[in-house]
Amino acid sequence: MNTSQLQRGRRTLRPHRGERDGRGAAGVEFLIVAAVLIFLFTTLVQYGIGFHAQRVAEAAAREGAVATARHDGTEGAGSSTAKEYVNDDGKPAVTGSSVSVSRSATEARVTVTVDVVTLAPWLGGSITSTATAPVERFVE
Question: Helices 25-69 and 75-86: crossing angle, nearest 10°?
Answer without folding.
Answer: 150
